[in-house]
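Input/output pair, single chain:
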Amino acid sequence: MKSHTLTRAGSGAAVLLAVMALVSCSSTGGGGGGDGDEVNAKTIGATSLNYVAFAWNDLGMHCLNPTYDKAVILPPYNTVWVQVVKRGNPPEIVTAGLRVEYAIHGNTYSYGKRSYGQFWDNMPLLFGVALPHDLGLNLEDPAVNNGLSGTMVVKGDHFQANGIPVVPVNDALAYSPYQVADITVRDAGTNAVLVQTQATVPTSDELNCGKCHGSDALLDVLQKHDDEEGTTLVADRPVLCAKCHGSPALGQTGPGSSGYYMSRAIHGFHANRGATCYDCHPGQTAKCNRSVAHTAADGNCVACHGTMQDVASSVANGSRLPWVNEPKCATCHAGIAEVDTATNLYRNANGHHGLSCPACHSSPHAVVPSQQASDNYQAVQYQTTVATIGSCKVCHSTSKGEGIGEFGEAHGGTRATACSVCHTAGPPATASRWPHQFQWKSR
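Output:
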């Protein structure tokens, strides 16, 4: 997705008149000839800041095994992105001269909690490397191994920490699938704190096969696999399933020696066996999908991903590569500028002046407003409203009003206004499509 480029087109006089009208409306509070539809400057959380930091988990939920001594599907592995904006006129996405730190709130170690230590004990056999306790794998930068706190690295226009080995148990030994990362942005030269925020770091071990496979489910899976396929997995345990069934989630390419991607094998096998998405994916406790507008009691997974048979058959025919080809927002949100991210996944795409899509909308499966309060933290911190980051003043220091909602409240979305003359091709009734259509237009 390309970021907006502001280009001035058409009559300079027309643009000047429109800007004068906007200034008059905003500065005098007389936007409708004195009929009480004023648009005045609002005070929101971001107003007192020189920088704002948008932070999010890349997937909205990370899964891990409850144990690492039998069948192993996923390691403890969480990834957080941060994009920093220097507020101004215009605002600027910045990385130079900054240091971004993260720390999992109330969680300083993973080894020694429940059975998660087996991950480090069996890491050489499972993943071919050995790491100190509480440092995680990094599939993108293998030499950079992150713990539960540390410094993020620059990746283009954002900061990133890959493979944080957080488990869903905090230092108080309480089960906590929705943990929080404290994010601190500092001046790299002076060490001064520029802005702090929080992001949900979700993780769940509800890879729950117990509905069909009993109390020792993962061992039963290996036994049944041996019985049906003539393998020796029980004797060879612990076994990484991706050793034979390719998993792009672990950075692998190709379907593996079995000829079946793990996604195809699991979804296809269980498609007609009475299983549901939340039987294996989180789950009854964690609720992988919690975006208010997108979820349901069963997670509403099928609406975007299709049935299990759909998943398996599309992988088999080559139209879907697991973890690479995912649902597109434009399938439902058609006709809105920049929502169609083409071959880019939502989590990797950007829009309004280069802002990442999740910077404003939050993580996949946790798009705000979310049922989980911690997902809504930044919306409240910066604009006081639990909604998509859409208040212009969050980033634009000279903006009047708190944003789109304030403007629509005053003007009722029924009038031709200075804003729509300059910034969008449609009338105010299409304001729900902003800020995707904030761009100069000729009139």
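The first strand starts at residue 51 and ends at 57. Residues 48-204 form a domain with the Immunoglobulin-like fold (CATH 2.60.40).
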